[in-house]
Amino acid sequence: MAPIEVITRAGEPRETQADTRVCGLFDGGSLTDPELQKLVDAGEAKASLKQVCVTHEDSPEDGRRRVIIAGLGKEDEFDAERARIAAAAAATRAKELGAESLSWAAPEKDGAVSGIVQGTLLALYTFDRFKSSKDEDEEGGSTSVASLEVVGGNPDEAEAARVIAAAQNAARDLQNLPSNVCTPEFLAARAREIADAHEAVSLEVFGRDQIVEMGMGAFASVAQGTYAEPQLIVLRYEGGGDGPHLGYVGKAVTFDTGGISIKPSSKMHEMKFDMSGGSAVLESIDAIATLGLPARITAVVPATENMPSGRAVKPGDIVTAKNGKTIEVNNTDAEGRLILSDALCYAVEQGVERIVNFATLTGAIIVALGHTYAGLFSNDDDWCGAVEEAGRASGEEGWRLPLHPEFADAIKGKYGDISNLGEAGAAGSIAAAEFLKHFVGDTPWVHVDIAGTAWGMKRNYVGSGASGFGVRLMVELARNP
Questions:
Q1: Three-state DSSP state, 2
Q2: DSSP letters spanning 236-264
Q3: How many Cα atoms within 13 Å fall on the side-chain side of residue 104?
Q4: Which residues are annotated as catalytic?
Q5: pTM (whole model) above 0.90
Q6: Based on the domain organization, do 220 and 315 belong to the same domain?
Q7: Which of 186, 248, 371, 467 is placed for a possible disulfide with 462 were both Cys, Cβ 3.0 to 4.6 Å?
């Protein structure tokens, strides 16, 4: 999809040249335009969040112009997240009406401008790369909206919001690509594009032989079953500042069959999304570098397929991770924690002082938290608090679940140090987090399980498809570590 232009201006909302303008309405509030207020008084225009009402007004340019009255909900509850939701509802209706340009009168509220920009751009996202016809009015079709104007908006806030939304949509592009296109080497090539675009970003990529030579036996064991070349992708951002050296680690299994412990076929096609953590990490670095945030970040993305073959790792095999821990591979479909274990060890070796990892790790997190919250697990209360706050500020929220010695006991190995499989049917997400904890040492660490939020959220500004979850959170962490 072509990028949507975002502009700001001062002046009266009615002075716009856009073909469709949007007015926000708070619960119990009123509109300054008496003709529009008549719709409020008649009950046709409603203030409830997500509600929209369409009317028309005289325009000096073409005689008539659409006006969308968008419900904003209660004024004392309004924030950037509610602005995203309201803007998405208005943008979706404008698209249905064939609008080409939108103009929003921004409420004078914190977060309004960024929410309007992000909600609009995220809601209008489409993925039509493989469509032979791109004019279909359906999910995956093309949008006609080419520009968004924010009246009364701060230009810097609007531009930052545009950059972040563009990065999130770029992560959604990577997620939506089929696995025969988005291979580990494809992700490495995207990382190269990011590094080449920014002086402050550098890149190293390690292939199969180097992964083995570096002692990453857990990562290598997952990759040994596929003929696709695995890649350990390392992006380094040197933006200055006096904050801690951050480590962003993202799981990127570009297709997960489950390996020898093969998955059922019914939804296996969705396993192209198993690289969602890695895509969010890559595109967050692009956004952070574009914004020039004063931060130092080492981003580590282990990328591979998980395939069954005559050389694939088998249930019962024992492998050795980079830190010397031996692992019983009792389920080859619990591969994400294997590749993350070596990636986390590598990040610690690079001297990072705070780590956050993103991974579509366990289906159990969907049972616990649905598609609303990501699961958070941590060895450090202060760092976890910072990640929780970044989630609230960015609208990408997480809910912390506990770690406990009894859960750690559940993954003790019979023949090796630890098992990649916990007790059947019991606290699966926590067992996975306890596994990862073995590979971060004393470094403050938060594991973000995004299996429920990477796709299927049904939140109206990202829909039920690929969400790009994590990009906004990581940008916020770089701003306020």
A1: coil
A2: EEE---SS-EEEEEE-EEEEE--TTSPPP
A3: 36
A4: 263, 337
A5: yes
A6: yes
A7: 467
